[in-house]
């Protein structure tokens, strides 16, 4: 029944998808946290940059960003991100594009968490001599992260599915392999079912686990 899978590296394709997801998630979490700090910063220039970045990036299709990393950064500007072979270059550019795009959504999720922290806590931290970065890092952000685990889980699930766009620049992830198999095999429904099941196996456990974590670490108010 599943003889059509022979000769195709299905596990390797999904492993590439997992790597894209994990690396992009880490990058987006770091950059998104920085952007969220900018959005609530008392410095107008930083607030303006954070607001502009989020509003611009969220309204650009991910496909455009991914293609730009290949055509704009690599082919036009010669940016290789330290890689030498074409496959690694495209993989790293895809991670960069996914990070840049997803960070905007991480920022907004985290900013909503920051807004749930009572203003008095920041004022009290500043009153005892903490600087704004110290008050944000030690007092506000830990509480904000605990309150936005569920929204960040949704961002992670969306990121997992968004990795399929990396096929546009030749990254050999699951969607790219699916397209090749559909072109070469006649089992359209079975191929679609296999890849749909694969993505469910990636996203459903992560969503359930992070939902459980959200209940455990949520801030009681």
Automatic annotation (TrEMBL):
Domain of life: Bacteria
Location of the ABC transmembrane type-1 domain: 14-210
Protein name (database record): Amino acid ABC transporter permease
One Pfam family matching this protein: BPD_transp_1
Species this protein is from: Yinghuangia soli
Gene3D superfamilies: MetI-like
Protein family per UniProt: Belongs to the binding-protein-dependent transport system permease family. HisMQ subfamily.
Protein location: Cell membrane
GO cellular component: ATP-binding cassette (ABC) transporter complex
NCBIfam families found in the cross-reference section: HEQRo_perm_3TM (TIGR01726)
InterPro entries, per database record: AA_ABC_transptr_permease_3TM, ArtM/GltK/GlnP/TcyL/YhdX-like, MetI-like, MetI-like_sf
Record keyword Kinase present: no
Keywords: Amino-acid transport, Cell membrane, Membrane, Transmembrane, Transmembrane helix, Transport
GO biological process, one term: amino acid transport
Residues annotated as transmembrane: 20-40, 60-81, 93-114, 134-157, 164-182, 188-213
Topology relative to the membrane: Multi-pass membrane protein
GO molecular function per UniProt: transmembrane transporter activity
């Amino acid at each position: 029944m599943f003889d059509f899978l022979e000769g195709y590296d299905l596990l390797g394709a999904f492993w590439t998808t997992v790597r894209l997801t994990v690396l992009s998630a880490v990058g987006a979490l770091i950059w998104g946290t920085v952007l969220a700090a900018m959005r609530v910063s008392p410095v107008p220039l930083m607030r303006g940059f954070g607001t502009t970045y989020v509003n611009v990036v969220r309204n650009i299709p991910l496909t455009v960003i991914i293609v730009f990393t290949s055509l704009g950064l690599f082919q036009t500007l010669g940016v290789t991100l330290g890689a030498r072979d074409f496959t690694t270059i495209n993989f790293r550019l895809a991670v960069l594009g996914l990070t840049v795009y997803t960070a905007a959504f991480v920022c907004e999720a985290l900013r909503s968490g920051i807004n749930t922290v009572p203003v008095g806590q920041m004022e009290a931290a500043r009153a005892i001599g903490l600087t704004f970065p110290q008050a944000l890092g030690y007092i506000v952000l830990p509480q904000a992260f605990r309150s936005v685990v569920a929204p960040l889980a949704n961002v992670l699930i969306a990121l997992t599915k968004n990795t399929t766009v990396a096929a546009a620049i030749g990254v050999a992830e699951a969607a790219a392999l699916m397209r090749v198999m559909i072109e070469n095999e006649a089992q359209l429904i079975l191929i679609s079912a296999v890849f749909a099941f694969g993505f469910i196996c990636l996203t459903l456990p992560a969503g359930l686990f992070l939902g459980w974590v959200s209940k455990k670490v949520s801030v009681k108010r």
